[in-house]
Amino acid sequence: MNLRCSRCARSWPLDPARWCCDCGGVLEIAGAPSFDPARVSETDYTLWRYQAALLLPDGVAPVTLGEGWTPLVAAEWDDQPVYLKAEYLNPTGSFKDRGAAVLVTALKAAGVEEVVEDSSGNAGAALAAYAGRAGLHATIYVPAHASPVKQAQIVAYGAEVVPVPGLRSEAACAVRRAAGEGAVYASHVYSPIVQQGMKTIAFELWEQLGGRAPESIVAPLGHGTLLLGLYRGFGELLAAGLIKRLPRLFGVQAQPCAPLARAWERGAADVGPVEERETVAEGVRIAAPPWGRAVLAAVRASDGVVLALRDEETLAAQRKLAQRGFYVEPTSALAVAALDHLRDRLGGVPVVVLTGSGFKSPPLMADWQRRVAAFARRHNLLHDPATHALDLVSEIGEVAKEVLLATDYGQRALQFRLQLAG
Hints:
By secondary structure, the chain is α/β, with parallel strands linked by helices. Among the domains are: about 55-95 and about 195-360, Rossmann fold; about 365-420. It has helices at about 95-110, 120-135, 150-155, 170-180, 190-200, 200-210, 225-240, 260-265, 290-300, 310-325, 330-335, 340, 360-380, 395-405, 410-420, and strands at about 1-5, 10-15, 25-30, 70-75, 80-85, 115-120, 135-145, 160-165, 185, 215-220, 250-255, 305-310, 350-355. The strands form 3 sheets. A 6-stranded mixed β-sheet has the order 4-5-13-10-11-12, sandwiched between helices. It has a 4-stranded parallel β-sheet with strand order 8-7-6-9, with helices on both faces. Strands 2-1-3 form a 3-stranded antiparallel β-sheet, with no helix packed on it. The longest helix is centred in the C-terminal third of the chain and has 17 residues, at about 360-380. It starts with a strand and ends with a helix.
């Protein structure tokens, strides 16, 4: 297998450390890997049951935390049956674990010792966790406005966090400069190996649905690596004669920053420039997705649609999901909210991918945080001597502080931290 530039068509060896062509174009895998159901592990219920279908050296030891094989839950949304693929139950709380696990495995096998990445949160946490598991040093460049909960998670895994002021794109520029100083850019966006991890969702759905593909899949759409992974995975199943047709792919963006939805509405083959504006679905706040042309082509090939929703719809769906037991971040809820717009287009029982956990989500927790603070005031917790230890745990964010204040366990933990500090 080789890599081929989507811009200039130049070929490159399959090297996990190469993330783009010298011309700046994204690199695609030349030639489709084959999927052989006979080589699926009968004992491993993680994504590594499909290791034979991944582009990795023979016999390589996986870097794993048990990612993959997430539940496919039958549910209803406004009386419409739906399957929810609970990717937020992966080890670090998002679907990004799949790509990180496969990429870090490939990098470690190639002898890489230091990696850098740019991320608004989930991808950075995933890379930090798997780099830690593999014994690699990781530095994550994050937008300064990124969720403090997600930044704290990255730090907890042992990675270095570098906040970058300005737009999300500024972090991407900063990490490229760092990659030129010796570290490998382990990009969750550009690396085609990441999509190898994402395609395992397609394989799992095929197995979980009894050897068939769903009629349609709805997923949040930012850079597009999830959707492309699904497209490639089901493409391999189709080529192997294991399914009769591709599922229809529906990509959902947030209206404040929706370059792919705008391109779709125009009937364009590629994305045009848009302003990078704030949205509660920070995971899809991508103004210039480098895989835009490939994403639009994949959606068209599957007879799908790209659409954009208002933040108000996303937050309403997020609250509704939480009340039904699915505690997810706004980016996940964005895809579920789209069901209200797609009811007549889906056919059969659709699958919606829930990409990230609500525990990383300040917007969802704002009302809850106010209630916790009120509880603390009612019980005089704010006057407890233990609260003076808050400066010791400031790095875990305001939400976590409120949790500590509102629980007996938290009070004991703060007292213990005081004793250690004293």
